[in-house]
Amino acid sequence: MTVHDSAAVSSRGGGGPLYIGGITPFSTVDWPGRLACVAFLAGCPWRCPYCQNHILQARDAATLGAEELFSFLEARRGLLDGVVFSGGEPLAQEDVIGAAQHARELGFAVGLHTCGAFPARLRAILPSVDWVGLDVKAPWDAYDRVTLAPGTGPLARASLDAVLEADVDMEARTTWHPALLSQDDIAAIGRDLAARGVRTWAVQAYRHTGTDGSLPNETVFPSDMPAGVADLFEHFEFRRA
Ligand code: SF4
User: Fold this and answer.
1) What is the mean pLDDT of residues 123-143?
2) Which among 20, 132, 144, 209 is most buried, taking Cβ atoms within 10 Å?
3) Is residue 61 within 6 Å of ligand 1 at its C-beta?
4) Phi and psi at residue 16, in whole multiples of 5°?
């Protein structure tokens, strides 16, 4: 069965075709505190040079469709807390909204990883989502430096507004490569998030493995964090991926 064949028979639950690059059956790290499977949806409009899933930036990287995902989920009812839609950028596919609703109907909690590129779709899916991991990649006016795409800061800021207004459980996460973000940038991001009411922030040290290799193999350490910024959050974590 090709992806497109599977997509054609995959409209259960009101969802349309999905283009999925892979499924991780069990994960305890993609949704902190939950045992979840992760569906990696193919396609992303941005081109962050630190992308760990750059193979999935193209939709034609998909090898699975919604039929396979929901067959997998139906076989694991009661064994998993939830499903995380990740990517790529899952909201690049409008049909992920119906898929999240259907996963809920099957009894799964729904998590979402998003870069914030599609704020209108994010607003539409939030009623079917229990937790969001939202990338905050840079100070809003410096966003394109990281995404290598034009006009991205206002989209990401609108996405953060949508998540905060929906009052859904969320984690903001920032990947830090020293060539892309300075210590002052990290401090500015942290202060802005705290002022907006974000309570959980994770700073993720750049990891070279799995990227396209376009950035120098340099990283940051907990001691590089600007003083006092982590204290602005109820929950802060410095992650060494
Ligand atoms: S937004 Fe995410 S998936 Fe898209 S290029 Fe950036 S890191 Fe990769």
Assistant:
1) 98
2) 20
3) no
4) -105, -160
116 touches ligand 1 (CB under 6 Å): no
- pLDDT tens track for 65-80: 999 999 999 999 999 9
The minimum-distance atom of ligand 1 relative to the CA of 87 is: 3
Superfamily of domain 3-240: Aldolase class I (3.20.20.70)
Whether 179 contacts 138, CB under 8 Å: no
Residue written as tokens 């039929």?
A: 67
Is pTM beyond 0.85? Reply is yes
Task: Please state, in angstroms and rounded to a whole number, the distance separating the CA atoms of residues 194 and 209.
Answer: 31
- Residue whose entry in the numeric block shows the structure tokens 């069965």: 1
Spatial separation of the C-alpha atoms in residues 238 and 41, rounded to whole Å: 26
Does any ligand 1 atom lie closer than 6 A to the CB of residue 239? no
Q: Which two tokens stand for residue 166?
A: 């929906």
